[in-house]
Amino acid sequence: MAKIRGSQALMRVLKEQGVEVIFGIPGGVTIPIYDALYDEPSIRHILVRHEQAAALAAEGYARRSGKVGVCLATSGPGATNLVTGIANAMMDSIPIVAITGQVRTKAIGRDSFQEADVTGITMPITKHSRLVTRPEDLIETLREAFYIARTGRPGPVLVDLPADISTSEMEWVKPHPNGDFKLEGYRPPGEGDPQAITEAARLIGASKRPILYLGGGAMNASQEVRALARKANLYVVNTLLGKGIYPETDRQSLGMPGMHGTVYASYAINHCDLMIVVGARFDDRVTGDLNTFAPEAKVIHIDIDPAEIGKNRAADVAIEGDAKLVLQPLLEQVRPRKRGKWEDRLDEYRAEHPLLVPDCEELTPQHVIQAVYEVTHGEAVVATEVGQHQMWAAQLYLAKEPRQFLSSGGLGAMGYGFPAAIGAQVASPDAVVFDIAGDGSIQMNIQELATATYEKLPVKVAIINNGYLGMVRQWQELLYQKRYSGVTLAGNPDFVKVAEAYGATGRRVTTREEVRPALEWSLTITDRPCFLDFRVSPEECVFPMIPAGKSFADLWETHSAASKGDDR
Amino acid sequence: MKHTIAVLVNNKPGVLAKVAGLFARRGYNIDSLVVNATIDGNYPDPQGDKYSRMTIVVDDENDPRIMDQIEKQLNKLIDVVHLSDHTQTQIVRRELALIKIHATPEQRSEVFTVCQVFRALIVDIGEGAITVEVAGAPDKIDALVDVLRPYGIVELVRTGRVVLARGERMT
Questions:
Q1: Which of B17, B65, B78 sits opposite A185 (nearest CB)?
Q2: Assembly ipTM
Q3: For the domain bounded by B2-85, which CATH number is listed?
Q4: B78 contacts A148? CB cut-off 8 A
Q5: pTM of the full predicted structure?
Q6: What is the least distance, in Å, from the CA of A310 to any CA of chain B?
Q7: Residue A187 maps to a domain
Q8: With contacts defined as CB-CB under 8 Å, which chain B residues touch A133?
Q9: Backbone torsions φ then ψ of A148, nearest 5 degrees
């Protein structure tokens, strides 16, 4: 059998794994890979302008499509630039494969030019990583990477590829039947313990005040979740990553609980007697003080990662398994039950404590995001950066479908939204894709205007421009006596001109009247990115707010509650 | 309470760093860690180079959740093939120590007697020093060290604990 070069083997494995697009930047040791790519028209390479954006775009692509995202960087600085994107994929359990070039195997460990120990650097932030040291290991290592990234609890896998491995010759190894293979140390749970599922059904039947609590791990079980909520009459709360798994527009949805969640979602958790938790990990931004979180609730915890069960909150019924495979039998076993009193109580509370948006003449962030929601009929794919705008987007852009709302939840990485939106637009060319951004965050990956313009990706970026690093400013206002330190973004560029300089387009909006026309205009642009610079009221705060580490009892519903501060 | 966990891992580069890094970043303390190539009848390995065994002694700080997390987090590492906590089970525990003490020629016979009681071996004799090798359960080694201390310990090395399950049971 004819031998092939390592770089050609890489291309073959990529094709075999169904990879259609990779995000990357070439460098010295990856030239052999790019040379092989030259002969592969079926694999689209998107040249980003910073490797962080390659990882984040691959991540946005994966989050949107459900497929494994792929990014490619050279050794040393190329690889270290991926780190934030890889950490982000780890925290939010997103399947990506990061391929990095490495110096020749003989040069490793000698502080060679552009050498960095990237498997070492990324050890705590990858699901798995491997440095390929022998040509005969390459093909299986790559297959293993895709298999590990997409199965079980998904996550980032890094393969470090020395230059001489890319150029050495090797025998092609045929793929395994069904594309699957056994790894001795890796057995992701599947169906869940039938006894535990029966016990869960019994608890649900016995519960007077249940809540279905969804995290990103329920992403692929949206149908089952919806059927369960309907059959058992469950009200639903969702984490930031769980948006859209159950439609937030539905009466039974209470939206997001936690630090900046709705008051009624946090109220429901505080008063429920049972939480059915699917694919969520009790993040501190949801729970606040764990000792006072959901004090009356028993917990049914369904998760594919056994290590999440009992990590932060003890489970009364623990079910290790794939959400879809666990919910199917659970759905059959639960009995319909009306809980009129509980539902009335939640409905009344929701009516009394709605999400408040400022009622004023000024152009506020909330007004802009509501307008984005209305103009797109709630059907856009929405990526966000990180900060105040992210929380407003989470509150006001109600998601109807899973994979509609893309946000950096666990890591909270500013600069996520724009590359993620690029990745999402590549995955869904016909979708309207918005990045809801802050004027701080957008500048962390603004260079990707070049990528999006060249690739003719009509990503719309709504910059909620308040001239501040707003979330930190808000904390300084509320918790540090307005001692604003390091938060003023003096020196912001003219974002419209920046967009235009790259060949994209944009518009500045300063009044409420201009908002809708500008958004509608942006929807007509289909061949390039569009920056909308919304000059909003600068000192708006996100409410409700439960300060870090506090409880539902400490919730600030409005600004006046927050100003009372310590005497509450 | 101290726990002894036996971890079968792939014998690949970087695996020790992955395990050690996991303990470090999650704040668990390792008392001792022994690692070497191994044979495990449950996992066929004709060449004898596929697996290593790590025997790790950790302190759970009297919080049962810590051991639960350590086991689950270790199991998440792809290179961890199998692990078990042998704290509550019937096991053979061994540790090896080399102890170099001051001993004048006149003191040698006294040291020999002590070593006989502990089934320790004299492995080197110099003009003013004797090196003793002892293998056994950790408390036996502790006891010998205590007995030898009055002579003056020049140097001491201990391997850390290795364990095997008793009888037919697999570790």
A1: B78
A2: 0.85
A3: 3.30.70.260
A4: yes
A5: 0.94
A6: 8
A7: no
A8: 13
A9: -70, -40
